Amino acid sequence: MLILAAAPLLAATIYMTLGRLIRALDATHHAVLNPRWTTKIYVIIDIGSFVCQIMGSAMQTSGDPEGVKTGNTVVIAGLGTQLVAFAFFILMAVVFHRRLNNKPTSTSLRTHVRWQRYMWALYSVSVLVVVRSIFRLAEFVEGPESKVYQTEAYLYVFDAALMFGVVVIMTVLHPGVLLRAVRKAEMIPLGDDDENGGYLLRGNGSK
C-alpha cells in the first residue's frame, strides 16, 4: 500500500512545480491555464486518485470476494484518472515550453536562469510516473492470476525503482534552486553595445 500510494504524493509535487516555474519566469501569459488554477485542479484530481488507490487496496485485503472485486475496480479508476490527468499535464507543459521558447520573457533570457533543464526534468519525472501508472493499471486489469500480479520483481522494477528515480531527479535538479536564482539575483542589463545581450549580476560584477 505504501508503494502504491507513493506516486500520487510525488505527482502533487510535480503539478505544483510547473505552476511555480511559470510564475517565477513571469510567463503566466504563456500558460494554458492560470498556474494557480492548474495547481488546484490537478492536486484535487491527485487527492482523488490517492484516495481511490488506498481505499481500493484496503478493500482487497478484506478477504471477501466481492470486496476484492470492488477494490480492484476502485484502484483501476484511480490509476486511470491519474493517467488521464498526467496526459493533459504533459501536454500543457509542452505548450507552455514552446510558447516561452518562441516568445521568451526577460526573466527567462537571463544567463543564470537555466530554466530549460528544469522543464526537461519535469518531463522526465512525468514520464516515469506515467510508465509506473501504466504498469499498475495493467497489473490490476489482468487480475491476481496474471504473471505481472504474481511476480514481485516487477513491482520493484516498474514501481519502486521508477519512483526512486523521480526522487533522485527532483533532488539533483531541485526547482527551488531556480526559484531562488530568479527571486534573489538582482541583475542590471548591460549597454546596447554588449553583443551577447548579457546581464550584469549586481554584487560580483560578472556576466
Structural overview:
- This protein is an all-alpha fold and 207 residues long.
- The chain has one domain.
- Helices cover 74% and strands 3% of the residues.
- It has eight helices and two strands.
- The chain has a two-stranded antiparallel sheet.
- The longest helix is centred in the middle third of the chain and has 38 residues.
Distance between the termini: 51 Å
Give the number of helices: 8
Helix content: over 70%
Shape: elongated
What's the rounded overall pLDDT mean? 80
Q: What does the main sheet amount to?
A: 2 strands, antiparallel
Could you give the order of the helices and strands? Answer: HHHHHHHHEE
The Rg value, from CA coordinates, equals: 21 Å
- Unreliable spans are 188-207
> Could you give the order of strands across the largest sheet?
1-2
Q: Briefly note the structural class of the backbone.
A: mainly alpha
Q: Give the total of domains.
A: 1
